[in-house]
Amino acid sequence: MNSKTIQLCLGIVFICPLLLIFPTQAFGELTAPPAVVSNPTPGQAPSAVAGLDNLILNGDFEFTTLPPDCHFNLSNAFATENISNITFWGEAAEVDLLNNGTGCTYFIPPQSGMASLAIHRQEFGLQDAFCFELASPVFEGVTYTASFYLMANTEFSPLIGSVEIGLSLDPTSFGTFIFSGSGNLTDWTYAEYTFVAPFTANYLCVQAGPDWAWNSVDNFSLDQATVPVSATHWETLKSYYR
Ligand SMILES: [Ca+2]
Ligand SMILES: [Ca+2]
Question: Containing H/E element for 179?
């Protein structure tokens, strides 16, 4: 019996009992392909295993008909028509699509890809806002993790401010507040929040927070959270596969 055969035999002896003890951890969450939910019945949670794909269709702002440039102060109708899978509706109506890869002087290059978006809360309260179309609704009672990156600029508005995330049934209203993030003036800040959906919703919405501030945002993600494999169990399994 050569050494490879001995290693294989030892591997089987150690791995098989572990598979009996942790079968779903070994072959369930770790290896199952992401679930795709098409035409789900409203109000019903998906029966498939937890998906790992981003539910937001254009969370990176890369899908647009606009050429690479610094597109400042777009109307809601124009932005909705030209930036895919997003409905813009904020009263300020002056979103900025910065999609030439540079950040357009006021921000650093996009956190991801060639494009980022900037939203403003004006001095007297009008705000930019929009809602992302999702590949699947989020379902009441299911746990999700949402994340994005943001960066502030105070050249025209004095405060750092915040960016708020909501869940909505309507692409033209913010819906229910879920969480918010705040950035800084020098780099992208990562904001992440895990939550149980309070109701079944079709849109993840974004608006400028209450302060007079201008923020760029990029790389939004929304994933159904999976039950994590205990680090101890995973390290044990990996040690036997090495
Ligand atoms: Ca991007
Ligand atoms: Ca603007």
Answer: strand 176-181
The one-letter code for the residue type at 215 is N
Which residues, other chains included, contact 109 with Cβ-Cβ below 8 Å and sequence gap of 6+? 101, 102, 103
**Residue 48 counted as domain residue:** no
* Tens-place pLDDT, residues 7-50: 544 444 444 343 334 333 333 333 333 333 333 334 444 444 44
For residue 14, the enclosing domain spans 3-34+230-241
* pTM beyond 0.70, yes or no: yes
State the distance from the centre of ligand 2 to the C-alpha of 1, rounded, in angstroms. 72
Per the structure block, which two tokens stand in for 217? 């945002």
Among the bound ligands, name the one nearest to the CA of residue 100. Answer: 1
| Distance of CA 175 from the midpoint of ligand 2 (Å) | 23
